[in-house]
Design brief:
alpha/beta, eight-stranded parallel β-barrel, two-stranded antiparallel ribbon, 13 strands, 40% helix
Length: 304
């Protein structure tokens, strides 16, 4: 799996306080060689929820921000990691996504969480055939979806999750399987370390995908990233800073955690090759604050 899928890199951010800031950021991400700019679908402002979940306040709603970023760039792919269906009318979201793909000349990556019925609707909306999807959560019939997307047969679908049911659905139906962040306990309820849990999730995808496996990309995000020559010191600083929210995330837990990446560009490259072999991940999304420092890794590994 690892050697069959070349590396790609994305940036995820939800923060901009002006059009100029968002325009500059989108063009900077493109110029540095990243494949994709992702937003998220959270509705979180400053306060206790942000502090408790470690999710940064989200300034931008994804659909409008994706459309603007696409308009201001020429090769950068755009997406949302991931759309939460409970916030949207599924048929309306399918049309919004198809429109963004059309107006971006085929640069949309459509990330989605929840529900087999919604995936079926999205695929039907982009087929050019009459839609007839009826289920417990989605009931849509009597029209043909417009506009047709530029990407054929449709934009790539990204489905994210951590449990067997969602990962198995993603392995069967998606083009990109996003592995949700692993917990920070030294051992989870199943007695697995964080890295073993990531490998377990990959095994679930591999089993469910069967012959589709070589066609899939596996995506994941290192939550903590530092390009540094002082790995030990960095791990200690992170552990200290996270002590209140994540008291079990000591330096040694962080060192081998699948959502942590610290080292020189060469060390990070070696670690990414290793993780591609053991967890299948070839598509890496980095936080906005690290885009410049991480750029040498992107330049070295993209497409390899």
């Amino acid at each position: 799996m690892g050697s069959e899928r070349p590396f790609r890199f994305a940036v995820q951010t939800t923060t901009a306080t002006s059009a100029d800031e968002w325009r500059t950021l989108a063009r900077r991400v493109e110029d540095l060689g990243y494949s994709t700019l992702f937003l998220a679908d959270h509705y979180i402002g400053p306060g206790p929820v942000s502090s408790r979940t470690l999710l940064r306040p989200q300034h931008l709603a994804p659909i409008a921000a994706m459309a603007a970023a696409a308009a201001w760039t020429s090769t950068l792919r755009i997406g949302c990691r991931v759309f939460c269906i409970d916030y949207h009318v599924p048929a309306a979201l399918a049309k919004e996504a198809a429109t963004i793909d059309l107006l971006s000349d085929g640069r949309l990556e459509f990330g989605i969480s929840k529900l087999e019925e919604v995936v079926a609707l999205v695929k039907a909306h982009r087929s050019g055939e009459p839609i007839d999807v009826k289920g417990a959560h989605v009931s849509v019939t009597g029209y043909t979806g417009l506009p047709l997307p530029v990407q054929r047969p449709r934009p790539r679908i990204l489905i994210g999750g951590s449990k067997k049911r969602v990962l198995s659905l993603a392995a069967r139906e998606a083009d990109i399987v996003s592995l949700a962040n692993v917990g920070w306990h030294p051992l989870n309820d199943a007695g697995l370390t964080p890295m073993q849990e990531a490998q377990h999730r990959f095994a679930t995808v591999r089993e469910a995908a069967g012959a589709r496996l070589p066609e899939l990309e596996l995506e994941s995000s290192p939550y903590l990233v530092a390009v540094t020559d002082d790995v030990d010191g960095t791990l200690v600083r992170w552990s200290t800073a996270l002590r209140d929210a994540l008291p079990e995330a000591g330096p040694e837990v962080l060192r081998n955690h699948p959502n942590v990446m610290a080292g020189s560009p060469a060390e990070i490259g070696d670690r990414l090759h290793e993780r591609r072999e053991t967890t299948g991940v070839n598509y890496i999304t980095v936080p906005r604050r690290q885009i410049d420092a991480f750029a040498p890794v992107v330049a070295e590994l993209s497409g390899r």
